[in-house]
Specification:
There is one protein chain. The protein is mainly β and 109 residues long. Helix content is 0%, strand content 67%. It contains no helices and eight strands. Strands 2-1-5-6 form a four-stranded antiparallel beta sheet, with no helix packed on it. The chain has a four-stranded antiparallel beta sheet with strand order 3-8-7-4, with no helix packed on it. The relative contact order is 0.30. The mean pLDDT is 94.
Length: 109
């Protein structure tokens, strides 16, 4: 089975065909289910137990096709707490990041 390491959201992510992943919000949450996204920033393409192509920094001609399954997915809630001892200072806020759910349809080497 083929795998690829792509650059997404400022980080690297290993994907295989059929994987369901969360990516940065697409079109401000207005994307339609079934739309496809092509990721061209592929760092490594290879087969499990076989050889791999390593890019410098990207593999030429390689791409990963994603299909949108959910336009908006809410991430886990992060709680931010600020506290100063011996003072009357305490603040609590929260944040939930919004993502787009996608499925890896194909890996083109």
């Amino acid at each position: 089975m083929a795998y690829a390491i792509i650059e997404e959201s400022g980080g690297q992510r290993k994907v295989q065909q059929g994987d369901e992943i969360l990516i940065d919000l697409v079109n401000a949450g207005e994307a339609n289910v079934g739309d496809t996204i092509t990721v061209d920033s592929v760092l490594v393409v290879g087969d499990v137990g076989g050889s791999a192509k390593i890019g410098t920094p990207y593999v030429k001609g390689a791409s990963v096709t994603l299909e949108i399954t959910e336009p908006v997915v809410m991430g886990d809630k992060l709680v931010i707490r600020k506290f100063r001892s011996k003072n009357t200072y305490e603040r609590k806020t929260g944040h939930r990041q919004r993502y787009t759910g996608a499925t890896v349809k194909s890996i083109n080497a």
